[in-house]
Design brief:
Order of helices and strands: EEHEEHEEEEEEHEEEEEHHHHHH
Largest sheet: 11 strands, antiparallel
Number of domains: 2
Oligomer: single chain
Radius of gyration: 27 Å
Structural class: alpha+beta
C-alpha cells in the first residue's frame, strides 16, 4: 500500500498545535515546545475499519499518518517516563512538505502481500520460528487455541512505538487486524438441541484482533495468507515431536477439551482424513482402542442411568449415601 508522508525522518519541523487525539493527557508536557523546532525521528500510520465487530450499519474507515519527535519526554527521559512514545498527528506539525511516497508492504509468512479488505489471513494456525541453530521450523497449533481465520480489516506501522524499540532495536513494527470469520459458534450441546450456537466472546463472528508481523524476517511469525500443501505433515510432526504434547499424551482425535474444534479446523483445510492416516502410522491401533473404550463407557452410562431411573426416591437417597 502506497503511503504519502509529508515529512521525512530527520527533517526539522515546527510543533504548531497540540491536538493529540490518542495522547491528549500528555499535551501539557509539550506546551513549552509550541512554536519551536523539533526533529522527526520516526513515523508511521494506521489504516483500519473501526466498525466494532462489524456490528455498525456502515464501515468506519480510519486513516492517519503520525510522527515521533526528538523532544518527546517519553523518548528523552525514558527512566522517568515509561510506556509508548507520543504519536504526533501530521496536522500538529508545520514545515516544508517533502511528500515522500513509500510502498509500505505487509508480507505474510508464505510471502503474500497483505491487502486491507481483500486478503484472507490465517493466524496462529502455524508458527514459524528459528531453533537454537537458526534452522527454520514450522509448528502447528495442534489444539487451535487463539487461532483465527478472517479478512484483513486494517494495517498499521510503528503503532505504540516504545522508547526501547527505538533506542535499542531501531526496528519497525508492523501489525495487521483480522476480523474472525471461521468457527464462530460453540460446540453443539443438549441445552441447544444439539445444534451449534453463536459465540459472544473473542471467538464471535467479526471479532477483530491485531497481530504483529516479523519485519526483520517475514518468513517467521504466525500470519499466513494460504495454508501450506504439507499442512497435514506439519501438524502430525508437531504432535509427535513436541515435548509438552508428548508428555501429556495429546491425541487430536480424543482430546478432552478440543476434539470438536480440532476436527472442525482440520476438516476446514481438507486434511482431517490425512492427519488420521498419518497418526495411525505413528501410533498404530491407538484410535481403535480408544474408540472401543469410549463405546464401553457410553454403554456403562446408559446402563447405569437406566438402573437409577428404576429406583424409588428412597432407594436413590440410600444410593447417594453409599457413594459419599
Amino acid at each position: 500500500m502506497n503511503i504519502t508522508y509529508k515529512y521525512k525522518v530527520g527533517q526539522k519541523v515546527t510543533l504548531s498545535k497540540l491536538n493529540f487525539a490518542r495522547d491528549y493527557q500528555r499535551e501539557k508536557f509539550f506546551e513549552k515546545y509550541l512554536g519551536k523546532e523539533v526533529t522527526i525521528i520516526a513515523r508511521g500510520f494506521v489504516y483500519e475499519d473501526e466498525g466494532f465487530n462489524k456490528r455498525l450499519n456502515q464501515d468506519k474507515i480510519r486513516f492517519e499518518v503520525y510522527y515521533y519527535i526528538d523532544i518527546d519526554p517519553w523518548y528523552k527521559n525514558s527512566k522517568e517516563h515509561y510506556g509508548h512514545m507520543t504519536m504526533i498527528p501530521e496536522s500538529c506539525l508545520d514545515g516544508f512538505g517533502a511528500w515522500e511516497e513509500v510502498d509500505e508492504q505487509f508480507i505474510s509468512v508464505d510471502g503474500a502481500n497483505i491487502v486491507p479488505f481483500e486478503s484472507t489471513i490465517y493466524d496462529r494456525v502455524i508458527e514459524c520460528q528459528l531453533d537454537k541453530n537458526d534452522k527454520l521450523i514450522k509448528k502447528a497449533n495442534c489444539n487451535f487455541v487463539f487461532a483465527t481465520e478472517g479478512t484483513c480489516v486494517g494495517i498499521r506501522k510503528n503503532f505504540e512505538l516504545s522508547h526501547n524499540d527505538f533506542l535499542w532495536d531501531r526496528a519497525e513494527t508492523k501489525e495487521v487486524k483480522i476480523s474472525r470469520e471461521f468457527l464462530t459458534d460453540f460446540e453443539p450441546d443438549e441445552k441447544h438441541d444439539w445444534k451449534t450456537h453463536p459465540r459472544q466472546d473473542a471467538g464471535a463472528y467479526g471479532w477483530e484482533s491485531w497481530t504483529g508481523l516479523c519485519v526483520s524476517n517475514p518468513s517467521l511469525g504466525s500470519v499466513y495468507c494460504a495454508i501450506p500443501e504439507d499442512y497435514a505433515e506439519i501438524y502430525v510432526h508437531t504432535v509427535t515431536t513436541d515435548k509438552f504434547l508428548r508428555e501429556c499424551e495429546f491425541n487430536p482425535f480424543f482430546d478432552c477439551n478440543f476434539t470438536w474444534e480440532i476436527k472442525e479446523w482440520l476438516t476446514r483445510y481438507g486434511v482431517y482424513d490425512k492427519v488420521k492416516e498419518l497418526w495411525e502410522k505413528y501410533k498404530p491401533g491407538e484410535n481403535k482402542k480408544k474408540s472401543e473404550e469410549v463405546k464401553a463407557h457410553e454403554k456403562f452410562l446408559k446402563t447405569a442411568q437406566k438402573f437409577i431411573d428404576s429406583l424409588t426416591d428412597k432407594q436413590k437417597e440410600e444410593l447417594r449415601k453409599m457413594l459419599q
